Amino acid sequence: MSKVIDKKIKVLQIITRLIIGGAQEHMIYLCDLLDKKRFSVKILSGAQTARESDYADAVRKKNIKLILLPQLTREINPLRDFLALFRMVTCIKRERFDIVHTNSSKAGILGRLAARLAGVPVIVHTAHGWAHHDYMGNLRRKFYVTSERAAEKFTDKIIAVSEQNVDKALKDKIGKRSKYCIIRSGIDLEKFNRLDIDVNKEKRKLNIDPKDKVVGSVTRLFAQKSPGDFIGMANEILKNNSRVSFLLVGDGPLKQEIETMIAEYKIAEKVILTGFRSDIPELLSIIDVFVLTSLWEGLPRVLPQAMAMGIPIVATCVDGVPEAVKHGQNGFLVPPKDFRALAQRTLQLIENPSLAKIMGEAGKKMVYPEFCVKEMVRKTEKLYEELFNLKSSVKRR
């Protein structure tokens, strides 16, 4: 710490929605673990609009103060967006926050503008993954890039969870390299390094044959995650090996579509959709190969979670994923939307247990300490204090 702080630094974390997701989990961990002697923190979030589980109750149980703003929605709506901006400016001015830290694209753009209008000394944004990607139309992509360029101009620091996210931003002319820093999205490594889980008991709970190998994923069922490729992969594998079960943990708007695919392939007895679950370590404990099918990402938290559990990974080679999954070391990387390549590499691990074990152990070693939640909090606290002290010293001149 560069100097003694005589009052708590007031931090407002802003996010578009508190749905179950990596960015939300990252933010909640940060709010919960920030040093309470040095920081006072609140969360401002839009209200939930989709039929999905959310973290609102979890936030309240941790005694983190939560401000819900119904006008803040994921969808673009000029009237609602203006009202959300006005309400955020009013709230920020009233509570006189020292730092506004935004998360996710919509809240990131509106929240940073609100913080600037309210005269907040320090404005920070975390890019958990950019909203613009190769699977959207040019006009829409240009809109998001232009908005990010505008918001960057009144941002003191942009935190990226992967080096690739920084490279992508610089390619799109969103600020200069000096504006960015890398802070990995940390996980509770102790939670995912357990030896007390009874694997056979967990399999019985899900009616999985104890002799079956299990291929699994933990993901939201929506377009970015491409869960249909997981089902396509499962169908290909079952053509070659019937002693495999498939576990898809999560929920989302594509659930019905996925159920239809499973029925059409006639593989329902081998594929389990659990819906949203909170017992992720227990579910990961029965997985022999973890599969990620995303089309674009920041750097998903579930990868270090699987690595900490000693599970080899087969993942699509997108964005920050190769910074966690080293091809041929702790897993395999394949092109996005290639479910046959996913099936081939997954079968390779299923049918070669010694290779799977070597890769799983390699992943376990890679995860420490880079993806530790304590390291994430330490680096963020340091950044907050450096920026706050810098602005305070400039103000005193």
Number of domains: 2
How would the global form be characterised?
globular
Quickly give the CATH architecture of the largest domain. 3-Layer(aba) Sandwich
How many helical stretches?
14
Strand order of the largest sheet: 3-2-1-4-5-6-7
User: Into which percentage range does the β-strand content fall?
Assistant: 15-25%
Average of pLDDT: 94
The main sheet comes to: 7 strands, parallel
Structural class: alpha/beta
Number of strands: 13
Distance N to C terminus: 21 Å
Helical content stands at: 40-55%
CATH topology of the largest domain: Rossmann fold
- Low-confidence parts: 1-5
Radius of gyration: 22 Å
Structure report:
- The protein has 2 domains: 9-186 and 373-396, Rossmann fold (3-Layer(aba) Sandwich), CATH 3.40.50; 199-366, Rossmann fold, CATH 3.40.50.2000.
- The chain has 14 helices and 13 strands.
- It has helices at 22-33, 56-61, 78-95, 105-118, 138-152, 163-171, 199-205, 227-240, 255-265, 280-284, 302-308, 339-350, 353-366, 373-396; strands at residues 9-15, 39-46, 65-69, 99-103, 122-127, 157-160, 180-182, 213-218, 244-249, 271-275, 289-292, 313-316, 331-334.
- The chain has a 7-stranded parallel β-sheet with strand order 3-2-1-4-5-6-7, sandwiched between helices. A 6-stranded parallel β-sheet has the order 10-9-8-11-12-13, with helices on both faces.
- The radius of gyration is 22 Å and the shape is globular.
